[in-house]
Automatic annotation (TrEMBL):
InterPro entries per the UniProt record, alphabetical: NAD(P)-bd_dom_sf (IPR036291), Peroxisomal_t2-enoyl-CoA_red (IPR052388), Ribosomal_eL43 (IPR002674), Ribosomal_zn-bd (IPR011332), SDR_fam (IPR002347)
Protein source organism: Takifugu flavidus (sansaifugu)
UniProt xrefs under SUPFAM superfamilies: NAD(P)-binding Rossmann-fold domains, Zn-binding ribosomal proteins
GO cellular component: peroxisome; ribosome
EC number(s) given by UniProt: 1.3.1.38
Matching PANTHER family: PEROXISOMAL TRANS-2-ENOYL-COA REDUCTASE
Enzyme's top EC category: oxidoreductase
Keywords: Fatty acid biosynthesis, Fatty acid metabolism, Lipid biosynthesis, Lipid metabolism, NADP, Oxidoreductase, Peroxisome, Phosphoprotein
Name the UniProt record assigns to this protein: Peroxisomal trans-2-enoyl-CoA reductase
Subcellular location: Peroxisome
C-alpha cells in the first residue's frame, strides 16, 4: 500500500453571495486513488492517497488528516465559520482548522496568507477561489467606486490568490485550482459589473490552465446556476423571493440548487477522478443556461430532490411546501 500523505488546501470565504452561502460547506473531503486513476468518495474503498480541504460535500461523511485554512476579511464571520468546522469534526480527527483574516483585494495580505499556510503545513495542494461580492444596480447607476470594488474582488482578488499560490508552491510541486464564477453566459443585466468580472475569470481559468500545465497544475472553474441558501435570501433582502421564484420556471429541473450540490462538483474537480480535466468550466445549473423561450418544459418532479438540510427546508417554505424541490 502506498504511503499516505497529507494534503493542504485553501478555500476563500468572502461573505457575500456564494462566498457566504458556502460558509456552510465545512466538512472535509476524502479521496481514495487507485492505480488506474479511479476515485471513490466516502471511504467506500481502501485509500492509498488522501486529500484534505475545507469544503463540505453532502455525499462525504468522513474526515481525514491534514490542514485546513479558511480566509475572510471579516474576523467575526471568519471565527464563526472556523468554529462551525471544528464542531463538525469527529473527536478522534487529527485535522485542524485555521482561520486567517485576509482581504483578497490586497496583494500583500494574499501573499501573507499563502506564506502562513506554507509555514505551518509546508505545502498547498489546492486552492478554491469562491470569494466574491456584488450588488444589484442598473449599469447607468454604477459608480466608478462600486465598479472597481466588484472587479477588484471578483477578478483581481481571484488572480492574486492564483498567482501567489502558484509562485510560492505549485510552480515546483503542482496542484489544483478551482474558480467559482457564475451563470453569465447570456449577460448579467442588473449586475453588469459582476457579469464582466466572472466572464473574465472564465477566460483567466483557460489561460492559466495552459500557462501552468508544464508545472502539473490543473485549473478549472465551476459556474453555478441559481443556488438557494438562507444567506443568499438575507443578502438580497426583499428582492430574494422574487428572483428565486422567477428562476424556477426557467430551470429544466423545475427546482433550485443548493450549496451542497456545488461542493460535490468541487470535490470531483479536486480529485484524481478529474486528473485529465483542465481549462474547463463545469456548469452546475441543471441545464438552466440552455433555457430557450421556444421550448416549454412542463412542470414536473422527475429530478432527484436537493440534499437535505436547512437550505432545502427554507426553499420549500419559500416556494411551495407541497412541491418536490
Amino acid at each position: 500500500m502506498a504511503k499516505r500523505t497529507k494534503k493542504v488546501g485553501i478555500v476563500g470565504k468572502y461573505g457575500t453571495r456564494y462566498g457566504a452561502s458556502l460558509r456552510k460547506m465545512v466538512k472535509k473531503i476524502e479521496i481514495s486513488q487507485h492505480s488506474k486513476y479511479t476515485c471513490s468518495f466516502c471511504g467506500k474503498t481502501k485509500m492509498k492517497r488522501r486529500a484534505v480541504g475545507i469544503w463540505h460535500c453532502g455525499s462525504c461523511r468522513k474526515t481525514v488528516a491534514g490542514g485546513a485554512w479558511t480566509y475572510n476579511r471579516n474576523t467575526g464571520r471568519l471565527e464563526a465559520a472556523a468554529q462551525e468546522m471544528r464542531q463538525k469534526l469527529p473527536p478522534s480527527s487529527p485535522a485542524s482548522v485555521t482561520p486567517l483574516q485576509c482581504n483578497i483585494r490586497n496583494e500583500n495580505e494574499v501573499k501573507e496568507l499563502v506564506s502562513s499556510v506554507l509555514k505551518q503545513y509546508g505545502r498547498i495542494d489546492f486552492l478554491v477561489n469562491n470569494g466574491g461580492g456584488q450588488f444589484s444596480s442598473p449599469a447607468e447607476h454604477i459608480s466608478s467606486k462600486g465598479w472597481k470594488a466588484v472587479i477588484d474582488t471578483n477578478l483581481t482578488g481571484t488572480f492574486q490568490c492564483c498567482q501567489a499560490v502558484y509562485s510560492s508552491w505549485m510552480k515546483q510541486h503542482g496542484g489544483v485550482i478551482v474558480n467559482i464564477i457564475a451563470d453569465m453566459w447570456k449577460g448579467f443585466p442588473g449586475m453588469s459589473h459582476t457579469g464582466a468580472a466572472r466572464a473574465a475569470v472564465d477566460n483567466l481559468t483557460k489561460s492559466l490552465a495552459i500557462e501552468w500545465a508544464a508545472s502539473g497544475v490543473r485549473v478549472n472553474a465551476i459556474a453555478p446556476g441559481t443556488i438557494f441558501s438562507k444567506t443568499a435570501m438575507e443578502n438580497y433582502k426583499d428582492l430574494g423571493p422574487q428572483l428565486f421564484r422567477m428562476s424556477v420556471s426557467h430551470c429544466p429541473a423545475k427546482r433550485l440548487g443548493v450549496p451542497e450540490e456545488i461542493s460535490s462538483a468541487v470535490c470531483f474537480l479536486l480529485s484524481p477522478a478529474a486528473s485529465y480535466i483542465s481549462g474547463a468550466t463545469l456548469k452546475v445549473d441543471a441545464g438552466q443556461s440552455l433555457y430557450h423561450s421556444m421550448w416549454e418544459i412542463p412542470n414536473h418532479s422527475a429530478w432527484p430532490e436537493a440534499p437535505e438540510g436547512e437550505n432545502l427546508d427554507a426553499m420549500k417554505e419559500l416556494l411551495n411546501p407541497q412541491s418536490k424541490l
